Amino acid sequence: MFRLILLLVIHCSTLGCLARIFIFTKAECRTLDPEFCNFESCEIFSTNNKTNLDIYVKMHYKNPINQVSVALAAYKTTRNNRVSIFNETIDFCLFMRQSFASKFSAIATGPILKISNINHTCPYQHDIIIKGIINNFNFFSGMPAPKGNYVLYMRVSAFKKWKAEVQFYARSAV
Q: Confidence class of residue 143 from pLDDT cuts 50, 70 and 90?
């Protein structure tokens, strides 16, 4: 992980990259197990350097959920290529108890946890609501990145089976 950030910083320092503002353009949500949950809303739009996020997941599973894993990935995309920047799977229950376990995951999920009802440790036994405004100046503010298009990908599993996935599309601006 440290090598990845170091390579990105070296690469960007030679090309003149700056820490960028990411403007989110689209969100795609997909249920992989309709008996477990479904997305009632999945919207994202940016205005005035702020991103409004509205995701509502209706849970059909009514027992406490205490085994959650999340696969997080970030890609820089071009017309015909997708370059992996980061790819990590975390035990979300452990992560919520010890967020320092993964620095990139803490950076990627921090703004979302502030506007959601999943900002507590396991077990989860309720619908998932992520609704609010993320300031684009603060999201990944310390990460140098080349100008371009990016995809942030998240896949969620419960009890060791994939249940849902969300993709956020963004473009970096100066």
A: low
Cα Dmax for the chain? 53
Euclidean distance between CA atoms 168 and 21, whole angstroms? 15
Tell me the pTM: 0.79
CATH number of the domain within which 139 lies: 2.70.220
**Sheet (strand 21-31) strand order:** 21-31, 161-173, 149-158, 68-77, 82-91
Query: What domain count does the chain have?
Result: 1
The domain containing residue 93 runs over which residues? 2-173
The amino acid at residue 128 is I
Closest CA to 105 of 54, 135, 137, 68: 68
